[in-house]
Amino acid sequence: MLRQGLATVAALALATQAGCYNTYNITLEELGKVQEGGSANAVSVTTAESEQIVVTENSKIGVTDKTGEYHAISPFNFTMTQNQLVAPDENEILTRDQIETGNVKQISGTKTALLVAAGLAAAAGLGVFVILSAPKDKGFE
């Protein structure tokens, strides 16, 4: 019974890992700005929803191809030409025809705090469950 509870908590923690980021779609033209890096290795791009976001060396960026597969690329270390995208760190070469959209993922403080609080609540709940479900007449003697 304890193993099932621990497995459930672990599965929930793994399933919610993607919840710590806000993902923004950007056009390939905006993604092309990220290959240059700007003067301070920070570039402002406009999302598909017309929001301004800043991409830094620590940002997670990538592209989604037409089959729905996500390909991560390193900010400021890729080349995008009129025909293809080359990301040497990830050994990726994609034609522009294969790419559906660019993506920028930024850490969400709210989602991260909620994830940590849910994990702590689950651990506390599991502890209370173990204490309440333990038989009263058995113990160490």
How many structural domains are formed by the residues? 1
CA-based shape: elongated
What is the C-alpha radius of gyration, as a whole number of Å?
22 Å
Q: Uncertain regions: pLDDT < 50 for 5+ in a row?
A: none
| Main structural class | alpha+beta
**How would you write the strand order of the largest sheet?**
1-9-4-5
Number of strands: 9
> How much of the polypeptide forms β-strand, as a percent range?
25-35%
Largest β sheet strand count, sense and barrel closure: 4 strands, antiparallel
In helices, the fraction of residues equals 25-40%
Measured distance between first and last alpha carbons: 24 Å
Number of DSSP helical runs:
3
Helix-strand pattern: HEHEEEEEEEEH
How would you portray this structure in words?
The protein has one domain (2-133). 33% of the residues lie in helices and 32% in strands. It has helices at residues 2-15, 28-34, 109-133, and strands spanning 21-26, 42-46, 52-56, 60-65, 70-73, 79-80, 84-87, 92-95, 99-107. The strands form 3 sheets. A 4-stranded antiparallel beta sheet has the order 1-9-4-5. Helix 1 (2-15) runs antiparallel to helix 3. The radius of gyration is 22 Å and the shape is elongated.
